[in-house]
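batch_manifest entry 22 of 60
target: Cytochrome c-type biogenesis protein
source organism: Deinococcus deserti
requested by: lab member K.T.
priority: normal
notes from requester: please return tokens only, no post-processing; we will run our own comparison against the previous entry in this batch. if the run fails, retry once and flag.
--- input ---
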Amino acid sequence: MRCLVRRLAVPAFLLLTLAAATPPALSPAQEARAERLGTNLRCPICTGVPITESTNDISREMLREVREQVAAGRSDRDVYEYFVARYGNFVLLDPPKEGAGVLLWGAPLLALGAGGAVLWRVLRRRTPATMAAPPMTEPEPFDPFLAQVQRDTARLAGSDTESKS
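--- output ---
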């Protein structure tokens, strides 16, 4: 009898191990949901690669876990919380925008708004009269050659207008 139990125990153990290793059969909608969830989970070994695109064993195991949880009927939030509990917020490619994450997401927008406000105040202070007035410069020193060229140019311009009439 003991011999029979031992002979049956080994194949039964192998069948149970094989059954536990195979992922549950999912409907096409569940499979699509598992893939969508997997694209937001980061591979712990690769840099910035979702588990659906990674080929290492940990990513495959994580994707199997996602499929099991989808088959069990857990919500997206429950699946993400499960992985965050195991790997931390790092595992999410799109972390939630709460806590310190809000500051990181909002800081560029705040800086852009502050820069726009400063620019608006600077432009508002400038008046059209100060923008149009030429800067005050000292008169040019008297140059007799330049004065002669200006007289000749004015005389030529005057004779051109008389000849055209």
